[in-house]
Amino acid sequence: MEDSSAATEKRRLLLSMLIPFLLVSFTLLIRVAEVIFEADFCFLGIFPRKISSLAGIITSPFIHSGFRHLFNNALPLLILGTALFYLYSQVAFRVLFRIMLLTGLAVWMTGRPAWHIGASGIVYGLASFLFVSGIIRRHIPLMGLSLLVAFLYGEMVWGIFPGFRIDISWESHMLGAAAGLLLAIWYRAEGPQRPVPFYEKEEENDEHEENDAALSDKEN
To answer: Do residues 190 and 90 touch, judged by C-beta distance below 8 A?
Structure first.
């Protein structure tokens, strides 16, 4: 029985890693293609308020300025993406897509007039969603994940401030984090919830028993 349960959890974990792994692999493939063909795909990024770059809302997360930029986003995307699909499988696809959409659209509307590329907006969105969701749900394992996210990626908070680094899209960081926060609130009633403590269950049972007794008295 324990072996079966362990095998099920292992399979679930591997499935949770699939989508983040495919996203990172596709991003790496694009970067390799740029190098092989000596091309520059920055035109697939977001240039705020430029109609022709609206497609960048979807394509920009897959474009990076170099392998270092890509690898800086790849590891947290794998870790946070896997956590999202493992713990919030019911809403994971919707959360991931809407983080990308909301962040990209907000950058297009409000960002500096420059090309904005990279998956960092999604990374900030995932970190924000996982952190806030655990706190809102008051679910001990999810709160533990929130603390782990804060510990591992707490320094990311500096990346949301203007002027942190002029070559980094702080707008994507800030707006991605905001999107994650909003979605954590929006989906607070979906996915894993805080277990009802035993003492609350006992109180509910007592109330039901009292109500049943009262109804019985009235019938008699």
So the answer is: yes
Burial of 104 per CB tally in 10 Å (0-12, 13-18, 19+):
buried
Residue showing tokens 């269950």: 201
Helix H segments across the chain? 2-36, 56-59, 67-87, 92-110, 120-137, 140-153, 170-186, 198-219
Is residue 57 within 8 A of residue 108, CB to CB? The reply is yes
Q: From CA 150, how far away is CA 170, in angstroms rounded?
A: 19
Task: Kindly report the number of other CB atoms within 10 A of residue 31's CB atom.
Answer: 20
For 150-170, write each residue's pLDDT tens digit.
777 777 777 787 766 677 889
Judged by DSSP in three states, 116 sits in strand
Do 73 and 10 form a contact (C-beta atoms < 8 A)? Answer: no
Return the CATH superfamily for domain 2-219. Rhomboid-like (1.20.1540.10)
Alpha helices (runs of H) in 2-91, residue ranges in sequence order: 2-36, 56-59, 67-87
Domain boundaries, given as residue ranges, for the chain:
2-219
Q: Among all chains, which residue has been given the structure tokens 């904005």?
A: 116
Over the stretch 17-56, which tens digit does the pLDDT of each residue have? 999 999 999 999 999 999 999 999 999 999 999 999 999 9
Q: What is the dihedral of CA 18, 20, 25, 28, to 10 degrees?
A: -170
pTM: 0.86
CA-based radius of gyration for the chain: 22
